[in-house]
Amino acid sequence: MNETPDDLKYSKSHEWVRVNDDGTVTIGVTDHAQAQLGDLVYVEVPDEGRELEAEEACAVVESVKAASDVYAPLAGTVAAANEALADTPEAVNNDAYGDGWLIRLKPADAAAVNALMSAAEYQAFVESE
Amino acid sequence: MLIFEHSKPGRRATAQAPFGEPAADDLPAALLRDDVPALPEVSEMQAVRHYTRLSQKNFSIDTNFYPLGSCTMKYNPRACNSLAMLPGFLARHPLAPASEGQGVLACLYELQEMLRDVTGMKAVSLTPAAGAQGEFAGVAMIRAYHQARADTARNEILVPDAAHGTNPATATMCGYKVREIPTDRNGDVDIEALRAAVGPHTAGIMLTNPSTLGVFERRIKEIAGIVHDAGGLLYYDGANLNAILGKVRPGDMGFDVIHMNLHKTFSTPHGGGGPGAGPVGVSERLQPFLPVPLVAFDGDEYRWVTEQDLPQSIGRLSAFMGNVGVLLRAYVYARLLGRDGMRRVAEFATLNANYLMKQLQNAGFDLAYPNRRATHEFIVTLKRQAREQHVTAMDFAKRLLDFGYHAPTTYFPLLVPECLLIEPTETETREELDGFVEAMKQIQEEAETNPALLHEAPHTQPVRRLDEVRAARELDVRWSNDR
Prior knowledge:
B: alpha/beta, Aspartate Aminotransferase, domain 1, seven-stranded mixed beta sheet, 36% helix
């Protein structure tokens, strides 16, 4: 079974969200998603300052199997993007919840995160899929 | 081994060398190179052996069953090649006046007419030099149509997630935003989602019907109504035309524009990047925008239709008439089949697919859409095998090579996990299909008893499992002298 840390929130399109102390949120793809994709060979992240709507395609992860969009789990402004992934896309495979983070977002509505799934809910969702 | 690695300084294939001293007196000195190019220096026999060996490593439709889904790898009749290579066709100069090329123009005109008839469109242009260019031309015409009406707010193309993979790329290249439309549980377009998505921004929708899920889009008339009512146009991706050839016509379904892949449905050779042909057909409202040249016939003489005749044309897509050699092969193929033959193509393509689907289902494989009849192709999902035996669609695909079968399409469409998209085509015998089923059964047994056999496959090919990840991350396709 893939890892699903309890302190994160999850979306149906397989992104994880961590709420940081400064009010921003960090977003990446889940361990389950990276396992499904297989070894990544390319990651594209959005520019800093870009305004994202909820569920807007905001990054691309590409493996030898397929290229997939990553969707913003909540609306906000991109505060930082993990540019290092351009050279080390394998970080998403090796450390999905750490070095493999994709973007840091300043949410338009901090409460929006509460609508996302808990770890237990996400696990049940993955099994039902 | 590369031919460069056979090279020894001074070795020559003299039989091929031009007579006399080569001269390039009329080129400006600044453009002449100072040193000799790094070409391989080999004997004629070395060159022959090198390329013959390479050709023997080919896994091709001429040597093996090739059920690559959505690619329609069917037999390319030899008659098409022979006739397209008649000296009159081969030696014809593309700048020769139409009066001296009435024969070839007649063939092209008749091909236009046959494609128009079998697709139910108003007019056809043969000039796009490949399927991708045909798609580009198709969406460019949609754009030109809206612009000609000063309807410039339309900036969005809808693409169902079961559409052919090139569609979003084409729409983007034509300057459109792509909006994805989901598929419902049974493999049809989600009509409610479509209704919610259309509006004043809708330029059109790109559909593959049957879709890449190997099922016929049952509510196509309704879809056409919704998109047309919103002011958008319907684009038909001809990738899967083989399934409906001569049976149902995209024009009758309400499509405004269609491209055809002649290397699929009309059996011209599949490239390896070689020449292709992607003719486009249009409904009446897109006719003024067709790419030129076309061929016209006044009952007496054939002539080229150019920008002068079609001032609103999106223009030319390639030099001259696209790939005439490919068009001639398709022409011969169409003439060999005739109208009844085309219908049989679709009937046997779907019969073969449904037979193979049923046999694989009986052998215990899971179908992605078990309640749907297959079109010319269908999807097996190995999700269960991945979970229980830790073997993937890729492992099955690679192991099939050891049994002498080209792998089906893997991991496409993206909607179905661990999928094999299987398209047997109409030109395979029942024995060949049965052999494939036996191989699949044996591989399933191996998956249960000795999965390493699958993980390490292929075992019998010129190369073993390739490191695709490294190839993508550290792409290096250059050869240089100092290595």
